[in-house]
Structure formats: structure tokens, C-alpha cells
Amino acid sequence: MERGGCVYIMTNVFNTVFYIGVTSDLHSRVIDHKCKRYPTSFSAKYNCIKLVYFMFYPSIEEAIAEEKKLKKWNRDWKIKLISDNNPQWLDLFNEDL
């Protein structure tokens, strides 16, 4: 059975730094970021604790391909993607994810 995946973008409270990741368990992964489970990681160092974008894909391979594509995008394109999907840049994390 194929397992789906999710591409997501985390940012800090000032929306100045982006972390783009991929996971098969968005809920657990966002909790890892918020709790700074890996204290030496990029997201912990730059306080990326706010989930501002995510998209689910039927397979993890599709999600990985999308993550690689987004990481190559320039900053303005990433800002537009987030703003188009989350105009107020709210933290989209909730316990039901």
C-alpha cells in the first residue's frame, strides 16, 4: 500500500525565514518543530514554529518532488504561494491535522 506525503512550510513569528519540509505525518512533524525537538536544526535555530502552508499528495514520492521544486523557488514565489493559500499568514496547525 502506497503512503501519501505532505509538503509544508514553517516560518518564524515575523514571517522572515522559511523552512520547507516533507513528511508522511504532518501532525507529529509540526509538533517536532514547535517543541524544537532537534535543537541544532535549521528550524530550531531560526525559530520556525508557525505552519503557514501545507499540501497533501497521494504518494510520498510526489511530495518529495514538490518539496525539491519549492526549495528552488525564489523568495517572492514562496511568499505568493503562502499568501494565495493563507492570506493572513495564520498558524494552520491544530490538533486535528
Q: Could you give a short description of this structure?
A:
By secondary structure, the protein is of the alpha+beta class.
Account of the 3D structure:
The radius of gyration is 13 Å and the shape is globular. The chain has 4 helices and 3 strands; from the N terminus they run ββααβαα. The mean pLDDT is 94. A hairpin with a 6-residue loop joins β1 (5-11) and β2. The chain has one domain (5-85): GIY-YIG endonuclease (3-Layer(aba) Sandwich). Strands 2-1-3 form a 3-stranded antiparallel β-sheet, with helices on both faces. The longest helix has 13 residues, at 60-72. The protein is α+β, with helices and mostly antiparallel strands and 97 residues long. This is Nuclease. Belongs to the UPF0213 family. Residues 3-80 form the GIY-YIG domain. Keywords: Endonuclease, Hydrolase, Nuclease.
Key features of this structure:
3 strands; 3-stranded antiparallel sheet; alpha+beta; about 100 residues; GIY-YIG endonuclease; 4 helices
